[in-house]
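Reference record:
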Amino acid sequence: MNRLPLRIVVLVAGIWASGLGPVSAQDLPWDQIEDGLAVTVWEPGASCRDQVASLYMVKVDPERFRFSTYYFRDEGLPAPLTIQEWQRRTHAVVLFNAGLFREDFAYLGLLYKDGRSLGSKRHPQWQGLFVAEPIDPGMRKARVLDLAVDSFTDNQPSYREAAQSLMLFDRTGKPRVRHTGKQAHQTIVGEDGSGNILLIKTAAVVTLRDLAECLRDRFPTLHHAMAMDGGSSSDLLIGGERVRSSGVGDARPWQPLVDGSQMVHIPLPSVIGLFPRAVAAPSQGDKAGPRRSGHQ
């Protein structure tokens, strides 16, 4: 899990050579996939003591995109799907892995879909909670809550979609992960000062503490963030059709990272998908997409 595949080393080297080397996070060139959805690659370099390699990021405006949670058992599937299989099933524009799981694929922490608990219990120590699609239309459409200070009632949830995991760093800038020395790929979900949701995926292994300190110190627009499952479960995908139709071409260094063509994918029990608000997300019983099960 901790060894970096040769093709990713080549990709990271290509990112550096392409001119997206160590630049300030404030000056990142974002490529607009469509209105409310943008992608970039950031190489922190020496600004983070060379402890954090390339990060690819998807910036989402929740006013233009809705979020939907999927769990394989709730979908009536016999086994988890790879993120590519999830994309073919759901037709989501963007998909990323949800939180952590037991060996039997039971979710660790709160997990809600359409206001329904998917059978999991609140984890007593993990304080990060990604929520979306509020019951009250006047509330912000997607948030990263810190359960140490933000309220969430399990039996009367204020949001229809929710997934619990670790806080990475909080609104005060305090890292909420320990120094363990353990390195792995990571998926981060954060909230910036404009209300955008930032999905961040590492292109190389890193410790959670180094990543927390790097993002806090060098990405000041990111107010706070939580960490989803890491290691081989860390995954993020933009539908290839969306990338191809965006007009940015295939010369962008981030494209092999987010279209899934250069990454190894393992089956994921649960994912979170993004859909344009003009188009409703498929429900559990929707048959628009092919029903697949098992592995490719």
User: Anything to note?
Assistant: Residues 1-22, 287-296 have pLDDT under 50 and may be disordered. The chain has five helices and 15 strands. Residues 6-17 form the longest helix (12 residues). Helices lie at 6-17, 83-90, 208-218, 240-245, 255-258.
